[in-house]
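Justification of computing resources. Each target in the renewal requires a structure prediction run like the one illustrated here; the chain below, 263 residues long, is used simply to show the kind of job we budget for.
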Amino acid sequence: MSLETYYKDHWVEIEPDRLDRYEDQFVWGERGNRLLEPAEIAAGQSVADYGCGPGYVSMELARRVGPEGHVHAFDINADFVARTREKLTAEGLDGRVTVTHLEQDMLPLEDDVLDRLVIKNVMVYVDDPLASFKEFRRVVKPGGKVHAVDSDFYMTAFDPVSPEDWRVVLDSALHAFRTPAIGRKMYGLALQAGYSDVSVQVIARPETTGRMFNFIQNMAGYAREGGMHDEATVQRVVDIAAKAVKEGTFFSLNPQFLVTATV
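Resulting structure tokens:
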């Protein structure tokens, strides 16, 4: 993969170990409910899940819209598409969801057809965030909402990993993200895209179960694939985090920016 397009290419092709880590990392829970609250998903709505990943958000949206609503799930990774379909079928929700393998930035939807569009932890990877917000606005009905949730990777924190070591890993892995500071930028981007009303919340919930160790492992992999890393530091971060998870002393914080924009 070219480092220039790695931020997108590494989602098109995902190695098995990383796929399995995403299954663990993206399982739906109470925290997910808080992240969706501002979107006001309701029964009977037509909703899109842009970047559906392994399917947990799509399943939750399908439950919320009920049998009278519909969900459009999109992803650029064929394995994610297959896993999403499998989960929906297993839960008896496949009739409420259309899952599409997306191969372009434009959405294969007519203008003004959605009540809600949800983008969870995807804006950090898109080619042109402003153009994406404009495209989302195109497919959402007047009065509908676009709800984007994302991180700002300069604000992540881990302990007992030192801030200095973590910054070395982060800087070596930045090619994996198009806009690493997207969290702080989404409010302004939505305003630029012409939405009538834009609100923002930040949720920062400490994580001590070790779930975010998956993220550390992924970041270490990105750093190594970039080839411009300090291996001793990368390995030290992984080892310290792994030991902390095993001993029950792991702590992480990854603030989530929730931007809800009304068309």
